Amino acid sequence: MLSDQHWNAIVANDSSFDGLFFYAVKTTGIYCRPSCRSRVPNRAHVTVFEQAEQAVASGYRPCKRCKPEGRRLPDEDWVDQIIRIIESRFAEPLTLDALADAVHGSRFHLQRTFKRVTGLSPAAYLRQTRLAEAKRLLANTDMPIADIASAVGMPSAAHFATWFQKNAHTPPSEYRRNCKRLIIHEQEGEQKYE
Fold it and tell me: What positions carry a catalytic annotation?
């Protein structure tokens, strides 16, 4: 159970508590030493363990920043964690610093490792994820383009239209029309073969 003493040690990054307990954050799936210099988590999301093994047994992964008990998360698993964050939070303003903070690593290590494992920078992966979602919404919904822009993390419809055309090589409205035409042709083809 998280006591005030535990919480105060976490907030103060108090190294005198290292080895006495470990804390895990439910929203990140990571466990740390009390001295970890990562951003202070929401207290409601923190669980305390006496042993690192208990955190591991509960499904938590070691922090890349403070490396509790000398454990180090394999790069591929760490990148999978970053990908999950990008894919679930792509509508937010995700900077490299925000990603690094979320996964308890340095921005430079994150950039290098992500690119080595995926072949893309985190920014390129974020762009690719936003583009895929924009295409899905354009093809499958009647949402206004301004709402789609907002849904993929771009508050300006004009900026979104320019960005979409640059990345998809067609304006969003034309992309939507082409998708609708394709659906109609597919439906007509199905009717011919019935």
Answer: 32
